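Structure tokens please, single chain.
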Amino acid sequence: MSVNSESVDGDEKVPKANVINSRLNKLFDSRFENDKETLDALKELSVFFTENTMQTRRSLRSKIEKRSLSINEDFLSAFRKVKEALDNIYLDVTDMNKAVETMTAQLQATKAQTHQLIEHTTKLQAEGQKLTMQQEVAQSFLKSFQLTPAELSALREANITEEFFAALDRVQTIHANCRTLMQSGHQTSALDIMDQMAMYQETALERLYRWAQTHCRNIEAPGINQLLNQAMAKLQDRPVLFKYVLTEYCTCRRAVLVHLFIDALTKGGPGGTPKPIEAHAHDAKRYVGDMLAWLHQAIPGERDNLLTLLKNCDTKTDVSEEVQQALSNISEGVCHPLQVRVDQILATDTSVVSLYHVSNLLRFYLQTFNQVVPGSSLEATLSELHSNSEKAFLSTLQSQVKQQLLEKVDAPPPDLSPSPGIPPLLTLLKEIISIASVAEGRQDDINKVVSCVMDPLLQAITLSASRLAATVMTVYFILAHFQVVSCVMDPLLQAITLSASRLAATDMAVYLLNCLHLMTTTLALYEFMDERLERLKAQSDAQLDTLTSEQASSLVANLNLGPIYTILQEQGKGPLSQVPGMEPANLNNFLGKLESLLNVPDMFSLPQMECLLSNAHRSVVQRRATQVITAIYTQLYNAVHNPDNLYANPSQLMSRTPEQVTAALLGS
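Here you go.
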């Protein structure tokens, strides 16, 4: 029917077969697999369109309409139920609205009635919050400015514990915080709290002082614990209590140190190792050295203990003075036993070397303890002992020098070497100076020792030489120049003077030169001897002058040069060749002896020259004496070659020039 209608309604009449073909082609060209609506429609159609017949196709439209009507009726029925439910909900909402309005009205009425009650309740809540805040502030105040029961109990307990120091710190903190409280305007409360805390603090410090004093009274060095360190730190704020405790500690440690020192002297170490110090009492050097070394080891240990005791004290406060004073008090106890034993050594030991060793040990440890315990009794004791040891050493040295010279200084031996008593004294001097060379202040020591040994020898030699007419003026010059004090009553000087006065001038000069040479070679090995060596050199030069004069006189006499020299000095007017004694024959006699001297330079040397110990002295005398001869020969040579003196053939008479003679005599 649709096909026919379509063909009838068109503008042009199309053959029926073409229309059908066209629709079939359109149908075939359609892609129903991509058309969802068509597929859904066909699926729904398959539900009720089960049989494809002519009759069913004709009634298909009516079936579809009926089915649509049935569906609409079912929808209407279902919607009716929904409408009824919505109507019921509407009624319920209406009822609820009425109830809410009723309740609102009632609430407004109630609110109007309870407004005053609400305001009162609000005020009460605000006051409650204020009271709660005040309670918290009060609790915080009490916590900040009052001690807890546990802290009060710790302050009152008999035993001192860590809790005691924590509570005491708490008291001091509260006391300090009260100043801030006073600045905020609460002066009355702050003053009351400060008074209360001050009372707690004083009571606690008094208990702490008594505890520390008792603890120090029975303390050993290892017994210094942390609690005692804290106690000393707290007592530092009370200088009087602090010094009392420190004095108690020093008293205890002084007794312990003395006991340990006596044990070291008499018992030795544990098990006898090391041996008792007094086991070496026969060796003064080791005995005194061991005692001082023990003290040098023990006293710094006491200083370390003191520093440990005071390690928690305030570093801003200088405690070094207290430490030094305490260390001085501790070390005071050992002064008496040390002094008694050292004085006994000084009184009984007669060895000069041992006494000097002891003196050096005392000086060394005096300087050491001066740095450890300056101004202490121990330092004063060591200073006194050092002074006594030095006096004992010098006195013993002087006595030994005196005794040595009295016993062994006799007349010089035939070889004019130094007296037998001099070398031992110089050996002793070298031994003492070698010890002084490694000691502090050695310059003063060396000068003192040399003065004790060398001055008597020098004075004796000078005084003995002064008795010889040939050296009177020389000695006078030396005494005046060096201001040597004469001690004619000294046995040493008398011994050397008596032995030397028996000698001739030449022998005396050689003997003195040998003695001075031995002294010079001894002193030349050491420092600080410049002045002494200069003094010895001056005296040696004086004796060299004497010996040179004697040697030159001997040469002049052996060469018969004396009359010739006198004539040359007294030459008047007229030719010299005509003066008696200056004839060529007389000059040939002199020149012959001179030739012999040139061939054998030592021919006319004094026998005493071989006794000189120093080759340098021998060379000096020979050179100076030769210079005297060459000077006269030069003067004679010039006179002979002077035409005014009328010498015939002067070149043949004196063929050697002064330079040749000098070279031959000096061996150059």
